[in-house]
Amino acid sequence: MNAIEIHDLHKGFEGFFLKDISFSVPQGTVMGFVGENGAGKSTTIKCMLNLIKKEYGEILLFGKDHVEHELSIKNDIGVVFDDLHVPETLNATQLDKIMRKVFQTWDSDYYFERLAQFKVPKRKKIKELSRGMRMKLSIALALAHHPKLLILDEPTSGLDPIIRDEILDLFLAFMQDETHSILFSSHITSDLEKIADYITLIHNGEILLSESKDALLYEYGIFKGNSEEVNDLPEHAILRTRPGAFGIEALVLKNEVNEAFRLERPSIEDIMLFFVKGSV
Amino acid sequence: MVGLILKDLMTIQRQMKAQAFVLIFLLVMAIFMQQSAMLLAVIVFIVTIQAITALSYDEQSKWDKYANTLPISKADIVFSKYILSVMLMIFGLVMALPILFFINFFTNNDITSEFFLTFNLIITSALCLLAVLLPIYIKFGSIKGRIVLIAFCFIPGFLTGMFKEYIPDMTQTFLYLKQYVYLAPLGGLILLCLSSLVSTAIYKRKEF
């Protein structure tokens, strides 16, 4: 079963469109949702959560329509945005009291364990917490009702590598249960390399690719050379080219290229740059 | 719904504490001036208007973006603000009335039918104020909402001034209506219910 299924999602704003977005997140996997700022990641997530209304298309979460079964779906998801959107005069203990009334499955013990693990002060007002602390609190809030799906919209942006690593470990622990799934939107591709099973790349409101991370990293290669050398590559093997420091760089299908060509292993960032800035 | 009201009460807790000092000052003034009705009006309005403070805090923190990811319906999010306001109003009355009777006892002012008239009018005005304020603030937010509110208050006054000679003398009508003043709070409550329906419709069309 797919935790998330999106078919032909369309949403238009002044000067920006989500154009027929389609991708799915299989249950038990982590989908890295990658793209530059303004590519449409947050808009897609907001459509999924019915925070903004889609124009057309189909969004299914746990196989159910996201508007028709909105409340039952929201019982099973945890959402983390790039900031904690709760009134700043509240503190973590007060939030526990509130959430106990919101979720029937709210687990106060688990919540306070996470706060202790992250060293988030229980009684300090949110406005007095650092950005890292606020994000950790936000993640503890998203996890403490034991959701089946985490929707993370840039949860690690603006955080230092140590905190990012701690947070990623927590997400990996969440994924120990094979019924759990994560949609992780980020432009920090190294985070996705650590945690994602699949990568979906969005650019200018369009999905450029949606594939398994291993396929991307092991089936693709980068060839660096001058234009004559690149011309020697089989045409059908070249996915994208772009100017490099010493000539031309080409993203190629590894299996379609003779072993005589020396290929480098691409990173997610390389692939993203080829698809966004390169030419066909 | 309970969670939302709890959240609002916790959010405005500090604000309420700060305003308690203002109320003590007013209490002293009311005792000296022997104006218990004024005290009642101020307490009821200050407490009731806290729902607007809660809305401002929500707006500042983009709470609605988060609240709409929780298993809470949009109707409940809106309705919780109305319940909160009415709860606060009742709390204001429970707090104000004993003080009022206390002042009247010491100043030897009897509780007259005139007082009940004032009491009814205060409650009705507070309910009507909420019925107008909440949809405006939900639709426009606290900054634009203030401007719309000012326009809302001034335009009728301006129009009345412009077309004064065409408007008949209302004194007799008011005197006639005075006998029905006991029903006024009920009218205010009905207006508040209608306002909640309008606010829900507005909120359902909002995007976050």
Automatic annotation (TrEMBL), chain A:
<feature type="domain" description="ABC transporter">
    <location>
        <begin position="1"/>
        <end position="229"/>
    </location>
</feature>
<keyword id="KW-0378">Hydrolase</keyword>
<keyword id="KW-0067">ATP-binding</keyword>
<dbReference type="GO" id="GO:0005524">
    <property type="term" value="F:ATP binding"/>
</dbReference>
<dbReference type="GO" id="GO:0016887">
    <property type="term" value="F:ATP hydrolysis activity"/>
</dbReference>
<keyword id="KW-0813">Transport</keyword>
<dbReference type="Pfam" id="PF00005">
    <property type="entry name" value="ABC_tran"/>
</dbReference>
<keyword id="KW-0547">Nucleotide-binding</keyword>
<protein>
    <submittedName>
        <fullName>ABC transporter</fullName>
        <ecNumber>3.6.3.-</ecNumber>
    </submittedName>
</protein>
<dbReference type="InterPro" id="IPR051782">
    <property type="entry name" value="ABC_Transporter_VariousFunc"/>
</dbReference>
<dbReference type="InterPro" id="IPR003593">
    <property type="entry name" value="AAA+_ATPase"/>
</dbReference>
<dbReference type="InterPro" id="IPR003439">
    <property type="entry name" value="ABC_transporter-like_ATP-bd"/>
</dbReference>
<dbReference type="InterPro" id="IPR027417">
    <property type="entry name" value="P-loop_NTPase"/>
</dbReference>
UniProtKB/TrEMBL annotation, chain B:
<feature type="transmembrane region" description="Helical">
    <location>
        <begin position="145"/>
        <end position="163"/>
    </location>
</feature>
<keyword id="KW-0472">Membrane</keyword>
<protein>
    <submittedName>
        <fullName>Membrane protein</fullName>
    </submittedName>
</protein>
<dbReference type="InterPro" id="IPR025699">
    <property type="entry name" value="ABC2_memb-like"/>
</dbReference>
<keyword id="KW-1133">Transmembrane helix</keyword>
<keyword id="KW-0812">Transmembrane</keyword>
<feature type="transmembrane region" description="Helical">
    <location>
        <begin position="183"/>
        <end position="203"/>
    </location>
</feature>
<feature type="transmembrane region" description="Helical">
    <location>
        <begin position="16"/>
        <end position="33"/>
    </location>
</feature>
<feature type="transmembrane region" description="Helical">
    <location>
        <begin position="78"/>
        <end position="103"/>
    </location>
</feature>
<dbReference type="Pfam" id="PF13346">
    <property type="entry name" value="ABC2_membrane_5"/>
</dbReference>
<feature type="transmembrane region" description="Helical">
    <location>
        <begin position="115"/>
        <end position="138"/>
    </location>
</feature>
